[in-house]
Design goal:
CATH topology of the domain at 31-160 and 242-322: Rossmann fold
Shape: globular
Structural class: alpha/beta
Oligomer: single chain
Number of strands: 8
Strand order of the largest sheet: 1-2-4-3-5-6-7-8
Helix content: 40-55%
Largest sheet: 8 strands, mixed
CATH superfamily of the domain at 31-160 and 242-322: Alpha/Beta hydrolase fold, catalytic domain
């Protein structure tokens, strides 16, 4: 009996040690690369790239989805847009290197949108085009509903913005939210297990296409495989259904140029629910279907994304000139 107890305790310590080691390794490989701004009690990590003198785009704010961070959003888009407008990439509260803050709505799109609004005020951006990917699309939508005076336009990328049939999410998100058991799971098993499944998980995001060669190296998406970030991510994902159920009836209030870029083979979110729903709910929204593409068009079809950013910026400038 003593031997079994010793083996059990040893296994627990080994798993905890492995989780801590792997989390430190990831943080060492991908340290903070940007600036920090205090928005309320959230210490927000962001990068801010200035526009050139002949810039043709309005300021752009990129909002990542679940399990993401600002490096993933920079991807190959940054190289192709740098200098054409002010480009701001951020780690949502609790992700990457942004702290979570103490507000009781920081797991909800509206709470995170409020932080984005505060950041723009703090760094002197009056109006911006938001580019929201996946769950970041819900944050962009909440921003549009709640902070319209700061909105120039939106480009949604394979967004998750509406209640979906059944409201289900992957089992480990719910497990992570459970009292005690969830904490133990995130501290002992989620990190090593996540590293073992990382390649397969990434492949599912890009299916049916192949994963771009630079994605795993440059996206820093392994940063989610740190226990505290894993828990925050699970809280965001498991809260999304109720959040968009409450938020989506207000999308009709959005009065700005909107593009929705979505793959018709996305296996992560249901484009027929979310993207089609946005086109239906927002007057004048343009839905762009990408045949045979999955959940990350900024990586697999950056030109299509850039084209819609350009279109929304041009229309937003025209609207501004008419007022």
């Amino acid at each position: 009996m003593k031997l079994l107890l010793l083996l059990f305790v040893g296994a627990i310590l080994a798993l905890y040690g492995a989780s801590q080691y792997l989390a430190r390794q990831v943080a060492s490989q991908y340290p903070p690369k940007g600036r920090f701004a205090d928005v309320g009690d959230v210490r927000l990590h962001y990068t801010d790239y200035a526009a050139d003198g002949d810039a043709d785009l309005l300021p752009l704010v990129f909002i990542h989805g679940a399990s993401g961070n600002l490096r993933e959003q920079e991807g190959i888009i940054l190289d192709q847009l740098k200098g054409r407008g002010r480009l701001i990439f951020l780690d949502r509260p609790g992700h990457g290197y942004s702290s979570r803050g103490s507000a009781n709505d920081m797991h909800l799109p509206a709470g995170q949108a409020r932080i984005v609004s505060g950041l723009l005020s703090a760094i002197g951006v009056e109006k911006a085009i938001l580019v929201g990917h996946s769950l970041g699309g819900a944050v962009a939508a909440a921003f549009a509903v709640n902070h319209p005076d700061q909105l120039a336009g939106i480009v949604f990328l394979t967004p998750a913005t509406h209640p979906w049939p059944g409201g289900k999410v992957t089992w480990y998100y719910h497990l992570t939210r459970m009292p005690v058991i969830g904490w133990l799971f995130s501290e002992l098993l989620a990190v090593p297990g996540g590293h073992l499944r990382y390649h397969d998980g990434v492949a599912e995001v890009f299916a049916p296409q192949d994963t771009p060669a630079a994605y795993e190296r440059n996206s820093a998406t392994r940063l989610v495989l740190r226990p505290h970030v894993f828990r925050y991510n699970a809280m965001d994902v498991t809260s999304l259904y109720d959040a968009v159920s409450a938020l989506s009836p207000s999308y009709g209030k959005i009065d700005a140029p909107v593009s929705i870029v979505t793959g018709d083979s996305d296996e992560i979110v249901l484009a027929e629910v979310h993207s089609v729903g946005l086109e239906r709910d927002i007057d004048g929204a343009k839905l762009v279907w990408l045949p045979g593409e999955g959940h990350s068009p900024a990586w697999t079809n950056p030109q299509a994304v850039i084209g819609e950013i350009e279109r929304v910026s041009t229309e937003a400038k025209a609207r501004s000139g008419r007022r």
